[in-house]
Amino acid sequence: MTLTAVIMAGGKGERFWPKSRTRLPKQFLNIAGQKSMIQLTVERLEKLLDISKVFIVTNDMYAELLRIQIPHLPVENIIIEPVGRDTAPCIGLASLIIEERYPDSTMVVLPSDHIIDHKEQFANVIETAASWAKKGPYLVTLGITPTYPETGYGYIQSSGQKEEHIGLEIHRVEKFVEKPDKATAEKYLANGNFYWNSGIFVWRTSVIRQYLKELLPPVHDVLETIKSEAKRAGQITEEIIRSEFKKMPSQSIDYGVMEKAKHIFVIPYDYGWDDVGNWTALERLNDTDEQGNVIKGDNIINVDTKNCIIEGNGKLIATLGIEDLIVIDTEDVTLVCTKDKAQDIKKLLKELREHKMDEYL
């Protein structure tokens, strides 16, 4: 059974504005280290499989960025979504293309913008998940062992039923739960049977296609139309995708499939994962100074400044007597916000759109 991978890379990374922009989103930025996040994602996968079996789903705007940043990726492995329809249609389209090329295959599906520190351990866990997925109509996900009561993630509850497979625990999933409030997140943390939803999935390609048929018929029906049109044309062409893909409803794979399907399993994972969801992630990814500040860039002077995240762009940034703030300076925008509002940066983007200031998006 051939192991393949699908990287979802069409997002805009809006919570990393103003550095992440419409034309250069977060996954193409060097957030941690000297490589972009999507380059790091591909590098992790190459511990498991050849680049010829890696597929990246994105949109027209980012296709050229992909060719530049991942030059060894076969061009035919770049799958272009003509419109955004959330993760279920994205995964469905990729599964159709992979099934045509590799009829007996297993898919690893993962976001393009996560940080995972330990490549060897990650490869071992994915191999175990793929081995388990081969045993039946199983959908497997990685659940991150929570270390604090995070309210920005969805959670996965283990049923408590578990068994060992190739040295790792595999738990049957009780349910997926939405992002909790602080009190609920604290209960989840204390319970010990809840995991952060990583958004990383492993399944046989034929199995996810069957679940889409059962649980998301509007998505499945369009995929079947694409398949029929491709059979007449001799291949799945961009023209066919452009014509049919937009007919699919927007639906997340979590809500459309994972929350409803049977035979869902989670493998606990605690080897240094971060989804880098907003600017506060820099505190987890970087060293802090003696005052608890994360400072990136030159020409930054701080006096009586504590627990701040400051990133410069060459222009002098001088701070005095501030605490718990985020200050991000780019060529044309300077962001200043409190750390507890980092999740709400999209509100600023909404204001920019309403004022028709699209040049800053």
From TrEMBL:
Tell me the CDD domains matching this sequence. Answer: GDP-M1P_Guanylyltransferase
The GO terms this record gives for MF are: nucleotidyltransferase activity
What InterPro entries has UniProt attached to this entry?
GMPP_N (IPR049577), ManC/GMP-like_b-helix (IPR054566), Mannose-6P_isomerase_type2 (IPR051161), NTP_transferase_dom (IPR005835), Nucleotide-diphossugar_trans (IPR029044)
PANTHER family, per database record: MANNOSE-1-PHOSPHATE GUANYLYLTRANSFERASE (PTHR46390:SF1)
Record key words, sorted: Nucleotidyltransferase, Transferase
Q: Domain of life of the organism in this record?
A: Bacteria
Q: What Pfam families does the record tag this protein with? A: ManC_GMP_beta-helix, NTP_transferase
Residue limits of the Nucleotidyl transferase domain? 5-291
The residue ranges of the MannoseP isomerase/GMP-like beta-helix domain are 298-352
Record's protein name: Mannose-1-phosphate guanylyltransferase
